[in-house]
Specification:
Number of helices: 9
Order of helices and strands: EHHHHEEHHEHEHEEH
Strand order of the largest sheet: 4-7-6
Largest sheet: 3 strands, antiparallel
Distance between the termini: 20 Å
Strand content: 5-15%
Radius of gyration: 20 Å
Helix content: 40-55%
Structural class: mainly alpha
Number of strands: 7
Amino acid sequence: MATCMDGELQPLLGGRAGLERSAIVADPRQRRILSILESRARPTTVDELGRRLAAVERGDGAVVDDVDPRSIRLDLRHRCLPGLESVGWIDRQPDGIRLDDPLSAVDISPPPLGAPDDPAWPVVSALLARPSRRVILSVVADHDGRLALKDLAAELRLRDDVIQPDDDRRLPIALHHVDLPKLAAIEVIEYDPDARTVTPTPRLAACLDRLDIE
């Protein structure tokens, strides 16, 4: 099994790249940008992208001819587009911006980019940040009932697809403080931090099937 020597929350981390991709997927505006770019057959300028984004966020879907709001332009130029470029999901050329096969290296099946408001995106974000959360969800789903934190940690220690800490105490600490609260927040599990027990929600099985997670 792989080992990890530094940092007590390292066992389930997806690294910096995973955290950056997770943050993008968690951001509704970034998902709308990806959706707009996917629908375009030609490169899209920042101004045109801003106008289309403003129309989508206004709710009527109509592309307005006047200049998009300054706040959207600034956000595109200084936050959204640099973030998408840093993870390799867009290609910025002199004639405009093209989509560059985002999420191609992700080994789950995310919702289509054309559905930026799909309720499965928060789950995708959580899994990109810490890929071993997929294993956590699979173990919880297999038990189909209340599972003690110590038993969950014991099962994860037996898995070859979970990076193992050098100190056995670190895995349950990471689960208790980071992973299980996050998975509970997106409503795929219920976690009782006092009793330290995990229970699958009705949404879990549907999410595992939707994202093609075994």
